[in-house]
TrEMBL record:
Name of protein: RAS guanyl releasing protein 2
GO cellular component term, pick one: plasma membrane
Pfam families: EF-hand_1, RasGEF
GO terms, molecular function: calcium ion binding; guanyl-nucleotide exchange factor activity
InterPro entries, sorted: EF-hand-dom_pair, EF_Hand_1_Ca_BS, EF_hand_dom, Ras-like_GEF, Ras_GEF_dom_sf, RASGEF_cat_dom, RASGEF_cat_dom_sf
Originating species: Sphenodon punctatus
Gene giving rise to this polypeptide: RASGRP2
Record domain Ras-GEF: where: 16-210
Length: 296
């Protein structure tokens, strides 16, 4: 008899690292699946995500994970608690660490391309590589073979088809695990939080103040951090836009429904103040919670 899968916790402190990794993967897959041909076309023609909200949303989600990790760490008041949070995320990211060599740009990302082509079943692309390929083909080859525009460049069309068809095939294969919709709702609100790099730096100073001899803000004398893999290029390095307030409100409404579905056990439309405070820890620095009655 198959062992019954335990109920997924909605509290991040109780989540197993594998569950968190799966649900983050599912969120990225769901966002990636919404990207259409015209979104790729727009990116290739403009060289950026201007007037391209679907692709911009995917890139924002990609970038939001690292910011969320920082906020979750900084939300803990003691060094020991922050270390525990870091340990949890290190466990989630341990596979990523083993793949750093896979993402090297040597040989035009040849290691990544080889491994990606060998994968069977569900797989998730490093979209920056494929966008780079689309732009390269578009720039290198003309659309037409003659000035009268009567002979289409079949070679270019074939190369574009191969790249786009591979991405479409990825969209058609669902992840090999079931995602908890309530946990997805909570994660979406967590990833919607917006803070600038300066704001996060100031939060870190509040937790661990620098000594008087150290600079109070980042300066040119600050040691240069190790650069990220070259794969994290312009497409992912763009400044994070302010979130769509209507979309954030929609995510919060779904999150509230999920919270009450799981915590309002007697169905009276209320949760205790203690439960509210525990749930609130999932969303550090989300100002919307300051407007809520703790027993509503």
């Amino acid at each position: 008899m198959a062992q019954k899968k335990r109920k997924t916790s909605l509290l991040f402190d109780h989540l197993e690292s594998g569950e968190l990794a799966e649900h983050l993967t599912y969120l990225e897959y769901r966002s990636f699946s919404k990207i259409l041909f015209q979104d790729y076309h727009s990116f290739v023609m403009h060289g950026c995500t201007v007037d391209n909200p679907i692709l911009e949303r995917f890139i924002t989600l990609f970038n939001s994970v690292s910011q969320w990790v920082q906020l979750m760490v900084l939300s803990k008041p003691t060094a020991q608690q922050r270390a525990q949070v870091i340990t949890r995320f290190v466990m989630v990211a341990q596979v990523w660490e083993s793949l750093t060599e896979l993402l090297t740009s040597v040989g035009n990302y040849s290691q990544y391309r080889r491994r990606f082509s060998e994968c069977l079943g569900f797989k998730f692309p490093i979209l920056g590589v494929h966008l780079k390929d689309l732009v390269a083909v578009h720039v290198a080859l003309p659309d037409w073979l003659d000035r009268a525009h009567t002979r289409l460049n079949g070679t270019k069309m074939q190369q574009l088809f191969v790249i786009l068809n591979e991405l479409v095939l990825v969209q058609s294969i669902r992840p090999p695990f079931e995602a908890n919709p309530d946990l997805l709702n909570l994660l979406m609100v967590s990833l919607d939080q917006y803070q600038t790099e300066d704001e996060i730096y100031q939060l870190s100073l509040q937790r661990e103040p620098r000594n008087k001899s150290a600079p109070s803000s980042p300066t040119s004398s600050t040691p240069t951090p190790t650069p990220p893999p070259a794969i994290i290029e312009e497409w992912a390095a763009a400044p994070k836009p302010k979130p769509d307030q209507a979309l954030v409100r929609k995510h919060i409404e779904k999150m509230v429904e999920s919270v009450f579905r799981n915590f309002d056990v007697d169905g009276d439309g209320h949760i205790s103040q203690e439960e509210f405070k525990i749930i609130r820890n999932n969303f550090p620095y989300l100002c919307k919670f300051g407007d809520l009655d703790e027993n509503q």
